[in-house]
Write a structure and sequence with these properties.
Rossmann fold; 4-stranded parallel β-sheet; globular; 12 strands; alpha/beta; 6-stranded parallel β-sheet; binds NADP nicotinamide-adenine-dinucleotide phosphate; 2 domains
Length: about 290
């Protein structure tokens, strides 16, 4: 079994981003990200802080906005519309999970497509879907100037490719069908020539599906959801879940149990998380380089 070291792979990508930021400085552009945190959810705050640290280390300006948990949806939409109109802001990112009175779909529509570093605006989603049909593979799709892919699926694809996983013709299972993780990850894997099954809370007998998979990607948000008996010997296991528990942050995979059966596995922390934050910054740099 080998561990996919998300931190080490992310550092390599960050070196490239530092150089890209330096090139933008020649055009007098300082890329800027505005993450928005609503309320006090501990996981959302972890992501918010991680962005602040990474942006600073890359030379990206950080213009975070914090709103109280009881802020109305209209207040959030006002903040987004101000940031949409600000020419010095390149990327807007609304931290999840949102308080229950705020609609994720309305927020997805509100963030301008040019600044949608989370890749969830219908325009970004539509571009991804349409362009993926003609792209030869995931990297060719992501290389397109105007295509902004959701960061977590990007992170998973880059980790798989960097780890040398044979993707073409492989069988993958994605568990979770959310807008920003499971659904787009299924599409990116498909673009790469993977045969994909997407499972969710209504799927019957998930374990019979996961046991056949060469690659298992999990994003359900339930601690230790994937156990050893659900994974075939030698599978590649990508744990996307981040669950804040009294024992600390744990993933959706029972790591101790599953790791000995896997050929490659991502740890928590230090797996998908650091790469996701890095891919958000890559999207910010892409948006900044698209400035007129
Ligand atoms: P989400 O919107 O809550 O979606 C969860 C998905 O899991 C849903 O599609 C749901 O199915 C499915 N699910 C829930 N219970 C299930 C069960 N018992 N069996 C099968 N499927 C089940 O969550 P998300 O935004 O995708 O995030 C998922 C996890 O990834 C969370 O822990 C989150 O913190 C983490 N995350 C990590 C990163 C990172 O950078 N590592 C980034 C984003 C998210 P239904 O659709 O049928 O309800």
């Amino acid at each position: 079994m080998s561990i996919i070291d998300g931190r080490a792979i992310a550092r390599k990508y960050q070196e490239v981003l530092r150089r890209d930021v330096a090139h933008l400085a020649d055009r007098e552009i300082v890329p800027a990200i505005a993450p928005i945190l609503i309320g006090e959810d501990s996981a959302a705050r972890v992501y918010y802080r991680a962005k602040a640290r990474l942006a600073k280390s890359l030379g990206i300006r950080y213009a975070g906005v914090e709103l109280p948990g009881e802020a109305r949806e209209e207040e959030l939409l006002d903040v987004i519309s101000r940031l949409n109109a600000d020419p010095q802001i390149d990327g807007i990112f609304v931290e999840l999970p949102l308080p229950s009175h705020i609609s994720r779909e309305r927020i997805a529509y509100a963030v301008s497509a040019e600044k949608d570093v989370d890749g969830i605006n219908p325009v970004s989603m539509g571009q991804m879907l349409v362009e993926s049909a003609s792209a030869a593979n995931y990297r060719q799709l992501n290389a397109q100037r105007r295509v902004l892919l959701p960061a977590t699926p990007q992170a998973v694809m880059e980790l798989l490719l960097e780890s040398g996983v044979d993707l073409v013709g492989a069988n993958a299972v994605v568990i979770g069908r959310s807008l920003s993780v499971g659904r787009p990850l299924g599409l990116l894997l498909l673009t790469e020539g993977v045969t994909v099954t997407i499972c969710h809370s209504k799927t019957l007998s998930i374990e019979t599906i996961t046991r056949r998979a060469d690659i298992v990607c999990v994003a359900v948000g339930h601690p230790r959801f994937i156990t050893a008996d659900m994974v075939k010997e030698g599978a590649v296991v990508i744990d996307i879940g981040i669950n804040v528990t009294p024992e600390g942050i744990v993933g959706d995979v029972d790591y101790e149990e599953v790791a000995p059966r896997a050929s490659l596995i991502t740890p928590i922390p230090g797996g998908v998380g650091p790469m996701t934050t890095t891919m958000i910054m890559a999207n910010v740099v892409k948006c900044a380089s698209n400035r007129e």
